[in-house]
Amino acid sequence: MASTLLVQPDTKFIRDVMQSGGGDLKKCYQCATCTSVCELSTESRPFPRKQMVEAQWGLKQPLMADPAVWLCHNCGDCTAKCPRDARPGQVMGAIRGEVIKQYAFPRFMGTLVSSPGALPLLLALPVVILLAIAVWPVHAGPLPGWEFAFMFPQARLETLFFTVGTLVGFAFAVGAVRFLWALRASGADGPILPALAPVLTEIATHRKFSKCTIDKNRYPGHLLVFSGFVGLGVVGTVIGIGTMLGVMHTPLPTFSPFKVFANACALLAFVGAMLLIASRIKNREARTASTYFDWFFLLVLANAVITGILSEALRLAQNQAWMYPVYFVHLTMILALFLYAPYSKFAHLVYRTVALAATWEGRKPLIATQDSGSKETLADDRS
Amino acid sequence: MDKRLGVYICSGCSIGESVDVAKLEKIAGSEYKAPVCRTHPFLCGEEGLALLREDLQQGTVNAVVVAACSPRVKTAEFRFDPKFDTQMVLDRVNLREQVAWCHKPNDEDTQMLAEDSLRMGIVRAQKMEPLETVPGEISRALLVVGGGVTGLSAALEAANTGFDVVLVEKQAQLGGFAAAMKKDIPRGAPYTQARMDGVSERIQAVTSHPRIKVHCSTKIVKTDGQPGMFDVTLQNGSDPFVHRVGAIVMATGWKPYDATKLTALGYGLPDVITNLEFEEMAAAGPIIRPSTGQPVESVLFVQCAGSRDSEPGHLPYCSSTCCMNTLKQTEYIREQNSNAQVFVIYKDIVTPGQYEKYYQKVQEQPLNFFMKGNVTSVGKGDNDRVVVNVDNNLLGSPMRIPVDLVVLATGMVPNSADGLAIRTLHDAGLKVLRNESDEQRQAAEKVVEQYKHHEGTEILNLTYRQGPDLPVLRDGFSDSNFICFPYETLRTGIYAAGAVRAPMDSALAEEDACGAVMKAIQSIELATRGQAVHPRAGDLSFPSFFLQRCTSCKRCTEECPFGSIDEDAKGTPQFNQYRCRRCGICMGACPERIISFKNYSVDMIAGMLKAIEVPDETEDKPRIVIFACENDAYPAIDMAGMRHANYDASVRIIPLRCLGSMNIVWIADALSRGIDGVMLMGCKFGEDYQCHFLRGSELADRRLVNVKDTLNRLQLEGDRIQLVQLAIDECARLPQVIDDFVGKLRQLGPNPYKGF
Question: In a mutagenesis test of the B interface, which of A16, A19, A26, A59 is the best target, namely the one with the most B β-carbons within 10 Å?
Fold first, then answer.
């Protein structure tokens, strides 16, 4: 970008970043240690030093359109090496939170989901919806044993989730498109569709996670949660469609291939979630910098997994007293997770993918640091 | 003095195992008829020293030659009752580091070296005269020029040590720039609080101190005399008056860089001011936009404004205080308006040591914005704001920053006077007036043109032939950083301190004042004893001039690095003993050889050269003389010996006070005696000079050029003379240097004048 930048610092943005985990932002004195140690930073898109400077100066617009913000995988290597304790890793996380808020559709949801005070309201909504479904009388014949369908008929749940899915998908689409426009305007013009295949492969293999050195638990933790969740999502969707078409009937027998697969995924997700939580608590840097925004996502997700496993166990044990309440909580968690996905940290799954795809062309694999021939060049090489 | 020679040879420290000490004794007795010659295996021990003391007490000897270790060691042991000081001479011959420890033991060449060394030592003792303290009326008062932080601190330090002080300040009030500041930068733990100034206390202490006399609105009309007896004529409107002082501390401080040169940075616009103007505004009231009178909402500081670049008219150096002051000034703005946006554009932030804590603190303010960048222009923008364009910054794209006020952090320019330049100007002016030939007058006029901006800049107004003020170093700062000797200047008894010496803040300036006062007191104490200051601290000798044979060539006057020699109307040199550092450069310069010291003279060295036994050309034993300066070269040779490095034993080492004291006649003497080569070994000169007398080795080098021409005419190879610059830490190089030289001389063949 060689055009002149008019500097008018967005002071609210600075305060927002500082309050959502980037509190040590101003300590940075641009020594570039963070960028040098970052294993994911490339010559054509170095980070996080430039983002630190932009955040310090309240330059919100460039940051909203900066794909490098999403190339970062929040590993914390930079924070560990920063000589000033400016915690660039946390600042990047805070900036990502701000991007999610910026492109949230509708806008007020973005603000709501990141406000701790709104938590009761956010949880109340799925509770109310589920209560309505639970209370609505069920016209079903006698059942062979205690089943969830007694309280939550499959058809109603499927309707609910597909509706929610559509709404959420739409919100994501709007956010992603806005984000993409901003990326294009800032010069990241890699074509998205052709890049999707390599990007998704890279994401699936978690190749980037393996590069980070400080927190060794993030790679296995995230990989397990990710694959567990993707697996559950796929199998859940398949079963959902199957039941709607009448080809399947839940609950599936315990040793049906789908059930076994689903249980395995649940276990993976559980272990992964525990790893991530433990690591976040044990690592002093992460613990002291974790914000409500971070914990909201992680705890909702962990609770969803735990209550899911518990629900199944209780159902198999036919414990009538507990299986329904636990399942209720499970559904609440799932609903919260998806309903608020475009506005919570969960949104990274869309934004990061879009950013990676938009910058795929010209980005060489991580090992090669000589980035000749890249399309995007900076006005000078001091970033 | 009637010399009774006493030769004492120590055979300890493996000297006895290396050379035949008995033969040395015989030489002392038979060749020099020494009445006393003793050998002892441990001369510096109680028993050995008792022998010496006994002989002295009895009066049997009064010219003592101690042939043992290096004269640089055991100085306390070989010091005798002060009652003998004016009645005896002592010479040390180096048989240990420069003979026994670095050459083959029990070898013919080593033995010849030891014998020659002894001969030279005896001759030297024979030609030395005892030294006496010359009494003088030394004033124990100090003159402090300048009443800012440095001058005030200096005055207090000196007065509290028991010396009277005369403090001269050209302004009407004391305090300098420190008094004009609203606050001072943090100076003590935790280094995060700007503090109220400390100058007012200091001013109070100075004005009420019984030993300090303060003269404000006063200038120095002239300074006559020499250290210990400076007569300073002062004037403040009415009649001039004179003070007698013993030493001078020059603390004239700094003045701000002339910002009118910074129109490219917008200076001239009403809302672009310098850091000093900002400070004065803040000290007097609210910080406002000069154009509207409204309080500021946004301010941009341009660091290194007109500094640290090679643009003509700019300062090439960092003034060391502007960054800290800018940080302090951001806090003034923050106090006034917590929502003000403050930008700081810098090349670097200079906050060394604990000052970094202040930088960290100021950085933490959410609305302070720091960035490295280059300000390309400052101009008027929309809505009457000032717009600053910054490129080459950390964002990679040029920035435009609209603000209310721009502050240019400009640097310090010393309030110094270039003594040598002023003198050059005056000399050239005289030449123009004297109607010399057209060509000479035109050349003189060019010089006047070149130096005329120095006109009227005198501060101390010394009536020294070499100039009315201290010389200046690079960038106009007053000379006060002699190699190896901080605060030492080229003018004995005059010491520069504070920002006139180097850019600094008030904390450092107070320390600087201490250093300069310490040196000033030292010079007074030494003058009281008739002794020299650094580097030959304690030396009682001084040059005497046999003026009957002086031809007024003025070489001594010009070449003395310290301006010790003035001249009268006829050009006859007038020597000022207390300015002298006893280096002997004048002695080396004089073509008529009329200058000598009681214990160091042309005749003495010539005698030493004659004492060397030069084998004739059939014996294939070349002889090389090394004149080694006592400051770097001689210690390096000693160190080579301490490491038992081996080198050619054909060398005969003659220590000199400075290579600049080398008189050309010695080379002629050496060569005419058949010595094959002469090496001058001394300190480095040039940009990174090490010469302890500024230009001694350089002068020797220049004089050698003429010598080489003479040699060529005598059919002698110019290569027989070599000047080697050897630093004190280069003793590892020494054997190679010597052996190479000997090798080269062997190739040239023996001196054809051998045996003549």
Answer: A26
Read off the tokens for B546: 């046999």
Among B454, B469, B499, residue whose Cα is nearest residue B149:
B499
Supply the ipTM of this predicted assembly: 0.84
* Alpha carbon distance B511, B500 (integer Å): 14
Q: Shortest CB distance from A9 goes to which of B359, B369, B392?
A: B369
Q: Does 1.10.287 match the CATH number of domain A107-358?
A: no
For A:43-102, CB contacts with B below 8 A are 49-50, 53-54, 56-59, 84
Report the first-to-last Cα separation within chain B, whole angstroms.
33
Look up residue B57 and give its two tokens.
């007490």
Strand spans (E) along B227-373: 229-235, 241-245, 247-250, 254-256, 272-274, 298-302, 341-346, 368-372
Burial B481-498 (b: 16+ CB within 10 A, else e): bbbeeebbbbbbbbbbbb
Please write the tens of the pLDDT for every residue from B555-594.
Answer: 999 999 999 999 988 889 999 999 999 999 999 999 999 9
Q: What is the per-residue pLDDT across B84-103, written as a single tens digit (0 to 9) for each?
A: 888 899 999 999 999 999 99
CA distances from A288 to A87, A90, A285, A350, B151 (A): 11, 10, 6, 27, 52
Chain B residue set in contact with A, beta carbons under 8 Å: 339, 341, 343, 349, 359-360, 363-372, 389, 392-402
Cis amide leading into A106 (omega within 30): yes
Interchain pair B400, A4: CB under 8 A? yes
pTM higher than the cut 0.80: yes
Inform me whether the C-beta atom of residue A8 falls under 8 Å from chain B C-beta atoms. yes
What are the domain boundaries of chain A? 11-103, 107-358
Using the predicted structure, report yes or no on whether residue A368 has a pLDDT greater than 70. Answer: no
Give the tens place of pLDDT for each residue, B156-175.
999 999 999 999 999 999 99
pLDDT, average across residues B589-610: 94
Cβ B392–A380 below 8 Å, yes or no? yes
Q: What are phi and psi of B210, to 5 degrees?
A: -65, -25
Which of B359, B397, B400 is nearest residue A379 as measured by Cβ atoms?
A: B397
Chain B residue numbers touching A1 (CB-CB < 8 A): 396-397
